[in-house]
Amino acid sequence: MNIELILKENVVKAIAALYNTNVTADSVQINATPKNFEGNYSVVVFPYLKLSGKGPEDTGREIGAFLKEQCAEVVDFNVVKGFCNLHISDVFWQNYLKAVLDNPNFGQAAPNGQTVAVEYASPNTNKPLHLGHIRNVLLGYATSEILKAAGFNVKKVQIVNDRGIHICKSMLAWQKWGEGKTPESSGIKGDHLVGNYYVMFETKFQEEYKAWQKTEAAATVLNEWLSKEKEVGKVKKELEKKQKENPGFVIDDAAIAAYFFKENYKNTYFNSGSTLGAEAREMLQQWEAGDAETVSLWKTMNSWVYVGFDETYKSLGVDFDKLYFESETYLSGKQLVEDNLHAASPVFFKKEDGSVWIDLKDVKLDEKVVLRSDGTSMYITQDMGTAQLRYQDFNMDRMIYVVGNEQEYHFKVLFEILHRLGHPYAKKCYHLSYGMVELPEGKMKSREGTVVDADDLVDELISDVRAASEERATLEGLADANKLNIWRKVALGALKFYILKVEPKKGMVFDPKQSIDLQGHTGPYIQNAYVRTQSVQRAFAQKQVKTEGVDYSAYPLHDIERELLLQLQQFPATVLKAAEDYNPGDIANYLYELGKCFHQFWNIVKILDENDLPASAFRLDLSKAVAKVLSTAGSLLGMEMPERM
Fold first, then answer.
1. Domain match, 357 and 425 both
2. pLDDT score of 226 more than 80
3. What residues form DSSP beta bridges with 83?
4. Is residue 522 part of a domain?
5. What is the strand order of the sheet 30-32 is part of?
6. For 25, which of 8, 300, 442, 509 could close a Cys bridge (C-beta 3.0–4.6 Å)?
7. Does residue 310 belong to any structural domain of this protein?
8. Which residues are within 8 A (CB) of 384 and not within 5 positions of it... i.e. 6 or more apart?
9. Would 247 be classed as within a structural domain?
10. Are 373 and 354 in contact (CB under 8 A)?
11. Do 192 and 270 reside in the same domain of the chain?
12. In 321-439, beta strands by DSSP E
């Protein structure tokens, strides 16, 4: 019962009958009529002016008259310039409402036979998930659920970055200063415990580095750099930018030296002069050599982190079909390169120093190294290997990578390499790039003071929701466990909606207080619409108003009821558009419009009228249909709908 398709097919008949010309249904333009005009749907008549040989008003009247006579769903029309605005019959909407309620899969497309893998999360095992991961995880999960609803067979995957020098920093710090602490003995969540030692390593390294900066060796390095006028000039320009932001900042020799040691020389010192740096690199070499003690410590600490990650994912309500680990996949990419070098027409080439490259200058991506001269792999090499493993696992038709926008060049290169290697899905790879998410200044500092942990953010939101709820006293009489469950649903709904309503490519500021506002463009505003649908059903039950079998076919619809039905009608198309654009924001904005329309319906009409059973029966069914779609659409974003708030 797709009204837009019905109208398009009848417009095709109208053009054939009126102007003796065949057009396709796909070419017919049908739009929802703007609210400031009368009607439900509008036919754009401009494309048919040459066929009619008449002006837009006369052409519109001819098409409208044909549709009113020949199409049972159209009961009236009006013409405004080049638009024929159609009024849809109440009977159609009443039947449509019943069809929505009878269809358990409303809004979900039939399987299309295509498999798509969606990679998201991809954390490092040296620290807990943070605010940036939240946007990544929510985008990945919502995109996966939307693609499922659009008919795709979806595989949710992540690559866990569980090897490298950053992992060894946490391991070394625990080994030196951990005193044998475990998540069980310390009472600290595993990923937080390991993250604490990563922070501790950095703190100890900074102490060592600052002490070294007072030595003659440091003075020699600094003076040598100060002699390079061009380099110093670049630093002065950077400091001048800082001075504009902070007029009290003074650019002097001390400021220049501090900048040099912080920004220019820190990595060099870590790799060539630091005692801690040398110990961390030695540990990495031991891990790569398979040293039993090092590998055992690595496995133990990673296991702590995985348990912590799982708790966070469960709290956020997200899941995965398969996990890949960098420690297991990085060799696959290296082997792929080695095999290709021996192919009849290799895409890679080796330079004199033994490093292996690919030339992408013809597509303006320059040359890219895939193996260092010592034979070690690059990040892109690992991604190549992981892509190949996933294709072997899932034979997917397309692959979506949910990764921040700072990696856009990386994925252009990766996709081009996969294409040149002959991967059949390479041209359907997509980088779902997203901007940075920040918090308003001064809000919710993490335990480190620099990065907001995902767990801290969720806990803070639940606390804020609880405080607002207790102030309204709307949940009195419920058991504490039930209250906590509601607060959790509202807090997570607020977080998910606020994050996902923004187009992924845009940067954003997440305002915790604003996100839980019951009156704003927020998750709780939508959840409150659902709560009202449930209170409608409770009211009918409590007053024992029986509507089963009541015939409302003669009930004349109110304008706000037609508006609600128009909103319901748009849901399946919105799902397909969100899937096509990889944009959960389409669903979020649809939810807001549907919720807003139901709030208006709640305020305008008397839903339960014991003196008018047909009206009451229709409005009860309409409330049930809205509840169904709010719940279904919300679930695509991972939002749960509470029955009370």
1. yes
2. yes
3. 44, 80
4. yes
5. 30-32, 41-44, 83-88, 74-80
6. 8
7. no
8. 333, 336, 337, 370, 414, 417, 418, 421
9. yes
10. yes
11. yes
12. 322-325, 349-350, 356-359, 367-371, 398-404, 429-434, 437-438
**pLDDT confidence bin for 450, thresholds 50/70/90:** low
> What CA–CA distance (Å, rounded) separates 461 from 145?
24
Reference 531, options 406, 442, 389, 627; nearest CA is 627
CATH code for the domain in which residue 55 is found? 3.30.1360.70
Helix axes 585-604, 480-500, angle to 10 degrees: 120
Domain extent, residue 181, equals: 168-292
Q: How many CB atoms lie within 10 A of CB 449?
A: 7
Q: Which residues contact 78 (CB under 8 A, 6 or more apart)?
A: 37, 38, 39, 64, 84, 85
Token representation of residue 500: 């996902």
Amino acid at 438: E
Distance CA 622, CA 630 (A): 12
Q: What's the total number of domains in the chain?
A: 4
CA 36 to chain centre: 34
Q: What is the DSSP letter of 443?
A: S
Q: Give the tens place of pLDDT for each residue, 616-645.
A: 999 999 999 999 999 999 999 999 999 999
Q: Are residues 605 and 466 in the same domain?
A: yes
CATH code of the domain covering residue 562: 1.10.730.10
User: How crowded is residue 342: how many other Cβ atoms within 10 Å of its Cβ?
Assistant: 7
Q: Are strands 349-350 and 322-325 parallel, antiparallel or unpaired?
A: unpaired
Q: Where are the alpha helices (DSSP H) in 246-376?
A: 253-259, 266-272, 275-288, 292-316, 326-341
What average pLDDT is seen over the chain? 94
User: Do the beta carbons of residue 330 and residue 381 sit within 8 Å?
Assistant: yes
Calpha distance 191→305 (Å, rounded) = 4
On whether the CB atoms of residues 463 and 470 are closer than 8 A, the answer is no
Whether residue 590 sits in one domain with residue 573: yes
Task: Say yes or no: 28 and 124 in one domain.
Answer: no
Q: How many angstroms separate the CA atoms of 641 and 645, rounded?
A: 10
Is there a domain that residue 643 lies in? no
In angstroms, the CA 430 to CA 444 distance is: 34
- Residue 150 is which amino acid? A
In eight-state DSSP terms, residue 346 is: -
